[in-house]
Design brief:
The complex is a heterodimer of chains A (214) and B (386).
Chain A: H1 14-18, E1 35-36, H2 41-49, E2 56-60, E3 63-67, H3 73-82, E4 88-96, E5 104-112, E6 118-126, E7 132-133, H4 142-153, E8 157-158
Parallel strand pairs in A: 3-6, 7-8
Antiparallel strand pairs in A: 1-2, 2-3, 4-5, 5-6
Chain B: E1 25-29, E2 41-47, E3 50-57, H1 65-69, H2 74-82, H3 89-104, H4 110-138, H5 143-163, E4 172-173, E5 176-177, H6 185-207, H7 211-217, H8 225-230, H9 236-239, H10 247-250, H11 271-298, E6 317-325, E7 328-336, E8 344-348, H12 350-355, H13 358-362, H14 367-377, H15 381-385
Antiparallel strand pairs in B: 1-2, 2-3, 4-5, 6-7, 7-8
Helix pairs in contact in B: 2-3, 3-4, 4-5, 4-11, 4-14, 5-6, 6-11
Classes of the chains: A alpha/beta (214), B alpha+beta (386).
Chain lengths: 214, 386
């Protein structure tokens, strides 16, 4: 948020130095590298139109990612859709970083038919338990994608018209794609047999119905 | 035309008045209904025969595949991708391999590229044939099933000869392929493709000008190009709305930019035009198969796997790669933390996202037309629920 001064400084350095130089300084180029993309014209226009929203802009294998604060997401998407003609929301998902301070990343990627099939990715950090504003008012297709993220990661989307579970069943306890959710699963009978299974908990060790997974 | 459409749902006037003067009724459609192609449940609000709203309820087949990906090393993920869209396993393999290869900056040898594209296009043909058979059966036309399955069988036999499996192919590897083609395989594939155009004529004879087929499909389930883009709908529904967009041309991967084929598009955005698009794609895929076979016959030797490190550990970062699957844009979003397992692997499933537009398409139609609309989206529940 205090990085307002960042975008204007790097343009002369980043694109010019990246290509022709490559001295033998990194001897083993084991793969593609993450580059600064604040010189990208779309990122430039975005930070000019909405000052302060671009926290960082990175490029990896030609794919540009813009990091923005969560409360600005609808504004940024609206700007990209209307002014920059990124009219197609390709996908929306989340990543759980467990110990990191904003625990989750919510990632959107957009496609522009008008601008030669250009794509851009928007990423925002969301703390555990905090809301992320919905993108449904900008893209209709965000509806199910956000329901899926809510279901599997437990990130609530504020202002979503119909935030229900979608892939797991109503009454399921927990959010299975969180890193601390056990891969072998929990007992899903919890909601059906509350007398036998405490809410949110798995079966007790001596229960004969306990699922054995590998 | 006008009397041809008389009595179809498109011609039922929507006066806004209740159809029977009764209350709206809630109706469960599926999950065991044969026309839902698996376990799709729709909660319908109907007014007489007319659908007021449809609410899809998915997730019956949810297996937590994306969570499972996180526990397996990169090569071990490939068989799991087969099980998502299980009638188009080759394109699933392909999209995943592309994502990892991008993050590894791996070069895939030319021969492997052509074989991959050949497998993809055979897979597209077989997937479209399955769609054509089942969509026609749903609407009461059982004959096309016998014709399309005759050709689909040939393709599945070819797959079996190449990799030993008929549906869950597991036929690609990161950086290329596991095995080269067996002797005589290309010739047999070419012989199949040469006559396949006549087979498509046979399907078209049965359906394209069929009076009943047209009455059941023309004007049903309209989804315009603007609506498609707003709902993120890709693949044949988008092209059936007159929008010529295909990842194979828009964001070319492998050797597609060297191949000569067209992107079919039809303007009316209804079920009938989506049928025409898929039939035209059968013919275009056949053209690609022929070109790939010719290239492979001219270049019988070559590497089939790039310089793949023994332990696959991509750099930390995230990457998205997409292919044009038979159902639309299939993408894999890979987040790596530098380890030997994906930190997070998200699938962008075309069926799931296309299905979201179903309520929009079904609104105001008759319950019988809902069967045509489910068929025309071409969903595979394994991919919807993952």
């Amino acid at each position: 948020m205090t990085d307002e001064t960042k975008p204007p400084t790097p343009p002369p350095a980043a694109p010019a130095a990246a290509k022709p130089a490559t001295p033998p300084a990194p001897p083993k180029p084991k793969g593609p590298t993450v580059n600064d993309a604040s010189a990208d014209p779309v990122v430039q226009r975005l930070s000019a139109a909405l000052p302060g929203v671009v926290l960082a802009a990175k490029e990896l294998v030609g794919q540009v990612t813009v990091e923005v604060p969560p409360e600005k997401v609808p504004e940024v998407l609206r700007f990209l859709k209307d002014a920059e003609k990124y009219t197609y929301l390709v996908d929306l998902t989340a990543v759980d970083w467990k110990a990191r301070v904003p625990r989750f990343d919510v990632v959107y990627w957009l496609h522009s038919f008008e601008k030669g099939n250009a794509r851009i990715r928007v990423r925002t950090g969301v703390a555990d338990g905090a809301d992320c504003p919905t993108a449904c008012n900008v893209f209709l297709t965000a509806n199910w994608m956000e329901r899926e993220v809510w279901d599997l990661f437990g990130i609530p989307f504020a202002g979503h018209p119909d935030l229900r579970r979608i892939l797991t069943w109503d009454g399921f306890s927990g959010h299975p794609f969180r890193k601390d959710f056990p891969i072998e699963g929990i007992d899903t009978g919890a909601a059906i047999y509350p007398d036998r299974y405490p809410e949110g908990g798995g079966p007790s060790g001596k229960d004969s119905n306990k699922k054995v997974v590998s | 035309m006008s009397d041809e459409r008389a009595g179809t749902a498109a011609s039922v006037p929507d006066s806004g008045e209740p159809m029977l003067g009764l209350r709206e009724m809630e109706l469960n459609f599926g999950p065991q209904h044969p026309s839902t192609h698996g376990v799709l449940r729709l909660v319908l609000k109907v007014d007489g025969e007319r659908i007021v709203s449809a609410r899809p309820d998915v997730g019956y087949l949810h297996r937590g595949t994306e969570k499972l990906f996180e526990t397996e090393t990169y090569p071990m993920v490939i068989p799991h991708t087969d099980r998502m869209d299980y009638v188009a396993a080759a394109t699933n393999n392909h999209a995943y391999c592309l994502a990892v290869e991008k993050l590894l900056a791996l070069e895939v040898p030319k021969r492997a590229q052509y074989i991959r594209v050949l497998l993809d296009e055979l897979q597209r043909i077989s997937s479209h044939l399955l769609w054509l058979a089942t969509a026609a059966i749903d609407l009461g036309a059982i004959t096309p099933f016998f014709y399309t399955f005759r050709e689909r069988e040939v393709i599945l036999d070819l797959f079996e000869d190449y990799c030993g499996a008929r549906l869950t192919l597991n036929c690609m590897r990161i950086g290329g392929l596991l095995e080269d083609l067996p002797p005589g395989w290309v010739e047999r594939t070419r012989a199949f493709a040469e006559v396949f155009d006549k087979n498509v004529d046979e399907y078209e004879d049965l359906l394209t000008e069929n009076r009943i087929w047209k009455q059941r499909t023309v004007g049903i389930g309209v989804l315009t190009a603007e609506q498609c883009i707003e709902w993120g709908v890709t693949g044949p529904p988008l092209r059936g709305a007159g929008f010529k967009w295909d990842i194979r041309r828009a964001i070319p991967y492998e050797c597609y930019s060297e191949l000569d084929f067209e992107i079919p598009a039809y303007p009316n955005a209804d079920t009938y035009d989506r049928y025409l698009v898929r039939v035209a794609e059968l013919r275009q895929s056949r053209r690609i198969v022929l070109q790939c076979c010719d290239w492979l016959l001219r270049n019988p030797e070559g590497e089939i796997r790039g310089k793949v490190p023994r332990v696959i550990k991509p750099v930390a970062g995230d990457v998205y790669a997409a292919v044009e699957a038979p159902k639309g844009e299939l993408g894999f979003y890979l987040v790596s933390n530098g380890g030997n397992k994906p930190y997070r692997l998200r699938v962008r499933p075309p069926s799931f996202i296309n299905l979201q537009a179903l309520p929009e398409m079904a609104k105001g139609h008759l319950v019988a037309d809902l069967v045509a609309i489910i068929g025309t989206i071409d969903i595979v529940l394994g991919e919807v629920d993952r």
